[in-house]
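> call design_seq(struct)
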């Protein structure tokens, strides 16, 4: 009886088919693992970026206030400087991709003590302007000590400088922050113990995907500070 050497074409084709099926399975497993890794990396980065951005925004809103002038025995009626926010975010989800411009504006001030002998130093009050804007699906938070450098729309809300209030030194500028991949921005306003509290929420969406991350923070405004919607 003769021994057959080698393989027949049919056997080779069967082996090739089995190997192909195996390789397809390996490739799909690799692809799935890669996508899961990329998804997890995006979520981790998005959550961290959103937390840092919202904490900075919370700090800005909680230190924004009205213009105060201290005298020896009285405080002048304050110049009311409300925080201005986009009306589309008022208890609703504002699609950031549809906005190209200002989303919010606030004034950060120190009081004027020029007229108070009780103050450690007689100094004019200082001003820092804060602008929250949207462009190409991103949110950006910037501070300014020169009103002329701000977007035109924000200039109309800034405190007039000169005399009792002057621009703060450049060392008062906060680091600009940008939050990318923002889909929605929402602000819910409530009154707690006589003060306004803002629940600020952002929804981030991975580009070309349905994967989302939602982060929120609560900001307690200084007493007497209000919110106006534009």
């Amino acid at each position: 009886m003769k021994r057959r050497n080698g393989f027949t074409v049919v056997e080779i084709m069967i082996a090739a088919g089995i190997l192909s099926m195996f390789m397809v399975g390996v490739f799909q497993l690799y692809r799935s693992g890669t996508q899961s890794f990329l998804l997890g990396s995006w979520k981790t980065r998005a959550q961290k970026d959103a937390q840092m951005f919202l904490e900075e925004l919370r700090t800005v809103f909680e230190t924004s206030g009205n213009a105060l002038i201290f005298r020896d025995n009285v405080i002048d009626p304050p110049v009311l400087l409300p925080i201005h926010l986009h009306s589309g975010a008022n208890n609703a989800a504002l699609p950031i991709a549809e906005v190209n411009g200002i989303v919010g504006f606030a004034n950060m001030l120190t009081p004027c003590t020029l007229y108070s002998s009780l103050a450690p130093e007689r100094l004019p009050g200082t001003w820092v302007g804060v602008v929250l804007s949207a462009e190409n699906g991103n949110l950006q938070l910037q501070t300014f000590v020169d009103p002329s450098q701000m977007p035109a729309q924000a200039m109309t809300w800034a405190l007039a400088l000169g005399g009792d209030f002057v621009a703060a030194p450049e060392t008062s500028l906060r680091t600009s922050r940008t939050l990318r991949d923002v889909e929605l921005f929402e602000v819910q306003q409530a009154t707690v113990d006589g003060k306004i509290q803002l629940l600020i929420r952002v929804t981030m969406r991975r580009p070309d995907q349905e994967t989302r991350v939602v982060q929120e923070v609560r900001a307690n405004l200084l007493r007497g500070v209000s919110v106006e919607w534009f």
